[in-house]
Every structure is written in C-alpha cells, then in structure tokens.
Specification:
Layout: E1 12-15, E2 18-24, E3 34-40, E4 43-49, H1 62-65, H2 68-71, E5 81-83, E6 92-94, H3 97-115, E7 120-124, H4 137-145, E8 149-151, H5 157-167, E9 183-187, H6 191-194, H7 199-207, E10 211-215, H8 221-224, E11 228-230, H9 237-251, H10 256-262, E12 263-264, H11 266-273, H12 278-285, H13 289-301, E13 305-309, H14 319-332, E14 342-344, E15 370-372, H15 376-381, E16 390-394, H16 398-401, H17 405-412, E17 418-423, E18 435-438, E19 447-450, E20 457-460, H18 473-483, H19 494-503, H20 507-515, E21 542-543, H21 547-552, E22 571-574, E23 596-598, H22 600-605, E24 613-617, E25 622-629, E26 637-639, E27 675-681
Parallel strand pairs: 7-16, 8-15, 9-10, 9-13, 10-11, 12-21, 13-14, 16-17, 17-18, 22-26, 23-25
Antiparallel strand pairs: 1-2, 2-3, 3-4, 5-6, 5-18, 19-20, 22-27, 23-26, 24-25, 24-27
This protein binds iron/sulfur cluster (SF4).
Iron/sulfur cluster (SF4) binds at residues 25, 27, 29, 31-33, 60-61, 63-64, 196.
C-alpha cells in the first residue's frame, strides 16, 4: 500500500522460512517501541524489540511478546454478530459485514432522525490506536451525524491541562537526557512497569552518581533503588510539592533571575505555598518532616535536576493542582537550560501535529454536547435531553476502565439502548453489545504512532492478513460514511486515510517518513528546555499561576482539598498499572490471580491472614479477592491492579466498582485514587 511513498523503510526481510517484518507498537504506553515481528506462513512466530528506535534498543515488555495470544486467541472476534441472549451474557449469532453495515447505518439514521444526533454517543480511547485509526473517518462520521462528543478525560486530563496552561505544551526532557541528570525525581510514576525503556537511562545516571528520589505510596521496584523514597498518602502530592516550593522561596534557593526573565505568577505561587511548612505537609501526607526537608534540600542543591511528573499523582481531587505544583518545581528551582534538567512528562506535542483539518467538515453546525467519559454511567442512566440511545464503543472497554462500574453496567443493561462494540476481542463491554464488529489489531493494519515518553514517530505496518473477517477502523467508518451518504463522494478506506494523515503532517516529518529516515522535529530528539524549546504560552514565559486554572478549580489553584476518608471507609484504594496491564488491553490473557495488597498493620487490625478471601467495599460496590499482606503499600492504603477484567475477581467486579465518578479539581479527570474503602474477611 505504501508504494505511493516508495515504501521506504525495510519492512520485510526473509530469514530462512521465516520473514521478519519491521513495525512499531501503538499500545497506550509511553515508549512506542520499534518491533521486529517474525512470521511464518501468515502466522506470527515471535515479536521482539528492534533497534530502529534508539530507546527500544532491541527489547520489549512481556505483554507484547505475548501479543500473538490476543491475535489468534480464544477471545478474538472474527465475524460480525448480533445479540441473541440477554445483555451481558455474550450470546451472539454471526452475520455478514454487509448485514452489519446496513443494520448499523439504519440504526444510526433512525436514532438521529427520531431523537437527534446527540442521542448517539461514540465512546473510544487510545488503548491501541494511533494517528490513522482514531480521530479520522470515525470523527467525520460522528460529526456528520451531530453525535455527542466525547471528552477523553480518563487519563492525562489534569496533567495535560496544567502543562498546556503553564508551558503551552512545551516538549519535555526525553529519555536519553536522563543520563545527564545529577538528581532525578520520579513523582507518581512507576517506569519499572509502565515505561520500561526509561529504566536503562535512569540506571546509567545512577551509575554516574545521580541521586534518585521517588514519590509513591508504594514501594515499587524503582522506589527500592531510590536514595530517598517519599511514600505519600494518595492525594497529598500537592502539599508536599508546595512545601518544597516554600523551602525554595524561603531559603533563597528560588532562582529569582530565571523567574524575573522567564516566568509569571511566581509571587502568587509563593503566597499559596507559604502555609505549607514541612511539618504541616508531613502531617497531611503521612511522612516524616525530616524526609521532606531532605527532599527539598537535595533538590535545591542539585544541577542538572530533573522531575518526572507521572500520571499517578493526578488521579484524585487535587490532581490538577498537584501536577501544576510539581511542574512548577524546575522553574522555581532554576533547573532549566541545561541538558538533563527540567521536567519530563508527555512528548506528543513535540511533533506540532494539529489535526484541525478534521474539524473543517463541521461547517456552521451547532456544536453538540460533550460527554465526559468518566461520567459514562450517568450519561447512560441520567441523561434525558436527549437520552443516549445508541452507544458506539470502539477500542475501549469502559466496563472495567471507567469509574462507578455498577452504574456503567446498569446503563449497559438498558433494553432501549442499542450498543455497538467494535473491538478485537470479547471484552467485558462487548458482552453487552447488541451488535459486535471485529477489529484488526496493530499487526493487521497501518497506523502512525507517536511516543509520549521519548520523542518518536513511527509507521505501524500490517504483518499478517486480517484474522477472520476483522476490519480496520478506517475501513469500517468509511463504509458507514458511504452507507449513510456522508462520504462526499470520497473513498475513505484504510489507504486513503493513511495518505490523508501523511499529507497533513508537517512537511519535514512526512518527508522523513517517505524517505525512510527517522523523523525529527526541528529541535531534534533531545531538546534542552529553555534553550532548544520554549513555552508555547502567548508571551513565551512559564505561567506559574494561570488564571484559567485558578478559575476552573472550585477550591482555587494550589488549594488542598482534604482527604475523603471516613470512619466507615478509612482505607485509600489505589489501582496502579502493572506489568500485565497498563490500560485494560490484554486483560483477557491468563494471569496469576490478582490480590489486594495490604500493609501488615492494616491486615493485623482486621484479623486477616495471607490469601484470605476478602471483600473490599464502600457505598458504591464491592470487590472480592484474596489479600496479599505486604509492606509494599503504606499503612492506610490498599492496592488492586489497574485494568483487571471481570473474570479476575471472585465476584466479577474490579477496582473501578469502588472509584467515585467525582472529577479532579482541574481538567475534569478521573479520581480513581479517591476510592475510600473498608476491607473484611468473607465469611
Ligand atoms: S507496550 Fe510499551 S514496552 Fe511494550 S512493546 Fe509496546 S511500547 Fe514497548
């Protein structure tokens, strides 16, 4: 297909009876590895990392090594099908694609005509999608129908809002420059499981003498290696960061020259930080004041010093302010302008890819309502102007990823709701579908994937033919556009969509992909902040107190909102990514039975022994699973893995059943870590 571009990069090499195909991993993971996939007679034999991407360096995670188990596994969807049993029972009967497209086109038209376009709710997330398979023909279809829009806020919304307001989405320090840091702070992230290609750079920095500080309620693998581990209570990152700011300002360690030349709002940040002495922050965060003092002093003294702002710290009521306070640290501490100094977060903005051409078709149509994906349960059970009548889920498994699982399930059980699920495998959400459509995996279609850790943009190529009758997103959405007479005479299949996206890339990027080179932004793959790249704010300065964030937060920017724990539900439940699941993708594969991690003090107080079957509960629901007693979580906090599927627990509910659908202070993100629970033995 890529002949139009001369199919530049070496894609297929014969190695005896096997063929090796070069592609890339588009799964929701910061690293976007380059892959070498060995195929034999149309079957995937082995998947490994290649050396085309410098950061992949020839190795990948076990999840993707096992990806062939998804491609041809038992759960794989191979044919379109319609429901034949009660919702949730996964009883279906095969139909043809022609029937499926006709049926779906008729339902879309009927729903729009009778209830209005907003009664159609598309629901998707980027678990396995890149620039070609998402927000292209799908966006056109739903915009043409006037469907409700979806705010994809389940992850990275608070951190994204803080970054955009403060730094105008300035690119961040890329993996290779970690080696140059003399101090690395990993805050609310666990790269040992969810950014594994960062680890070698951190190790090299450590060997060269860098100090490592980890802020995390759990003793993760990287926390074990740290010089200083700060095991904060979930949701208290904000006071800790403000105590650091207070120290920088009060001790004279704030870089006044940098702040006067390159920042706005420092004085207001200083005022809000003033009340957070080490003692006060330590009490709220449940750590020793001496630990916070050591943290602050080490950070103030080190250069180059680097702060990795993770996504763990945003998943609570204070998430936006916490992210802003953490991102402000390198500015106040004067850590920019040197290689290995500054902050590290997402690097997707590095490519300057604006997908504005997709909105061009909206014309003068009034903008439809926007539904926050975190409120799916409410959208399905409470909306009435108009009610959601057709839910189109693709590349997403909201039953196990969206807060308030019981409410989401109640919504999906509605007999008057027509649910389409277009996915690769029989997910927990697919079991509730009225119409099932089989989707290709990234080994069966083209895509373009942007890393959000390193700066990298790569082509994803089909390695094998589609399994069964699976089709790619552009093919299916293109067919629907045609069936509904919305295609404007344009063919919008996979190839056309790929070429269209390539045609809208910045010319230098598109040229590099066409020529088989590794694309690079103008500032290279390892920009130094405030030297090679600068804030994209209107005046080019970092805004340490954006008025928009102050206005958005009901409490005010940098104002701490207290812990929601109660006497009934005293334990904070967190649900971090694991080496099995970063999102819920691949949760269908067999895994050892997951358990609730609990500190020995909490287990002892409840008379629990290792392996006891417990109920973890609050007013929203209950999860039943064994308990694992370990000092890897701090007392008062319990932990269940993120992305579990319903079969993983004894009662078919997962951590999202206990997560409230309240929203973060800034960015309207999910508050998974505000789940407060009690735990008791199942009698
Ligand atoms: S999931 Fe992450 S680590 Fe695993 S292959 Fe994909 S990009 Fe690499």
């Amino acid at each position: 297909m890529l002949e139009a571009y001369g199919d530049p990069m070496p894609q297929r090499m014969s190695t005896g009876p096997d063929e090796t195909v070069e592609t890339a991993c588009p799964l929701d993971c910061p690293d976007s590895c380059s892959l070498s996939v060995k195929v034999n007679e149309g079957r995937v034999v082995a998947i490994d990392g290649s050396h085309r991407s410098l950061t992949t360096a020839g190795f990948i995670c076990d999840k993707v090594r096992r990806f062939a188990d998804r491609v041809t596994g038992e759960a794989r969807l191979r044919h379109p099908a319609i429901r034949t049993g009660p919702k949730g029972q996964a009883a279906f009967s095969q139909i043809s694609w022609e029937e499926a497209i006709d049926l779906l086109a008729a339902r879309l038209r009927e729903t729009r005509d009778r209830w209005g376009g907003e009664a159609i709710l598309p629901f998707s997330y980027g678990g396995s999608n890149g620039l070609v398979t998402q927000d292209t023909s799908d966006a056109r279809l739903f915009a043409s129908l006037g469907a409700s829009r979806l705010a994809r806020n389940v992850c990275a919304a608070p951190t994204g809002a803080a970054l955009a307001a403060m730094y105008g989405r300035m690119p961040s320090v890329s993996y290779p420059d970690y080696e140059h840091a003399r101090l690395i702070v990993i805050w609310g992230a666990n790269p040992s499981t969810s950014a594994i290609h960062l680890m070698p750079y951190v190790q090299r920095a450590r060997k060269a003498g860098a100090t490592l500080i980890v802020v995390d309620p759990r003793v993760t693998q990287i926390a074990r290696q740290a010089d200083l581990h700060v095991p904060v209570r979930p949701g208290t990152d904000l006071p800790v960061a403000l105590a650091l700011h207070r120290h920088l300002f009060e001790s004279g360690a704030a870089d006044q020259a940098f702040l006067s030349a390159h920042a706005r709002g420092a004085e207001r940040l200083r005022e809000r930080a003033a009340e957070w002495t080490f003692e006060r922050a330590a009490e709220v965060a449940g750590v020793a004041a001496s630990v916070l003092r050591e943290f602050a002093e080490r950070f103030a003294a080190a250069s180059p010093a680097l702060v990795r702002c993770g996504w763990g710290l945003e998943r609570n009521r204070n998430g936006g302010s916490a992210a802003a306070a953490v991102l402000a640290l390198p500015a106040v501490g004067g850590k920019f302008g040197v290689r290995g100094g500054g902050f590290s977060m997402t690097n997707t903005p590095a490519w300057g890819i604006e997908r504005t051409w997709l909105d061009a078709g909206d014309g003068d149509r009034p903008r439809p309502r926007t539904v926050n994906m975190n409120l799916l349960g409410r959208a399905l059970t409470e909306y009435d102007a108009p009610p959601v009548k057709l839910l189109f889920v693709y590349n997403s498994n909201p039953v196990v990823t969206i807060p308030d699982q019981a409410r989401v399930l109640r919504g999906l059980e509605r007999e008057d709701l027509f649910t389409v699920v277009f996915d690769q495998v029989m997910t927990d959400t697919a079991a509730y579908a009225d119409l099932l459509l089989p989707a290709t995996t990234f080994l069966e279609h083209y895509d373009l994937t942007r890393a959000y850790g390193p700066i990298s943009l790569q082509m994803v190529r089909p390695v094998i033919d589609s399994v069964g009758e699976a089709r790619s997103n552009p093919e299916v959405f293109g067919s629907l556009l045609s069936a509904l007479g919305l295609a404007d005479g344009k063919d919008q299949g996979e190839l056309e969509t790929l070429l269209e996206v390539m045609g809208h890339l910045p010319p230098a990027v598109a040229n590099a992909l066409e020529n088989g080179d590794r694309p690079e932004p103008a500032f290279g793959l390892t920009p130094v902040q405030f030297a090679d790249v600068r804030p994209g704010t209107p005046d080019g300065k970092v805004d340490l107190f954006p008025e928009a964030l102050e206005a958005e937060s009901s409490a005010g920017l940098y104002r701490y909102i207290p812990d929601p724990a109660s006497g009934r539900y005293p334990l904070a439940l967190i649900s971090p990514a694991s080496n099995r699941t970063i999102s819920s993708t691949l949760g269908e594969l067999p895994r050892p039975q997951p358990s609730l991690a609990m500190h020995p003090i909490d287990a002892h107080a409840r008379g629990l022994a290792e392996g006891t079957l417990v109920r973890v509960f609050n007013d929203l629901g209950e999860v039943r699973c064994p308990v694992s007693i370990e000092p890897t979580v701090r007392p008062g906090t319990v932990s269940l893995p993120k992305g579990l599927w319903r079969k993983s627990t004894a009662n078919g509910f997962t951590a999202t059943a206990l997560a409230p659908d309240t929203l973060t202070d800034i960015g309207a993100g999910a508050c998974f870590n505000d789940a407060r629970v009690e735990v008791e033995k199942v009698e």
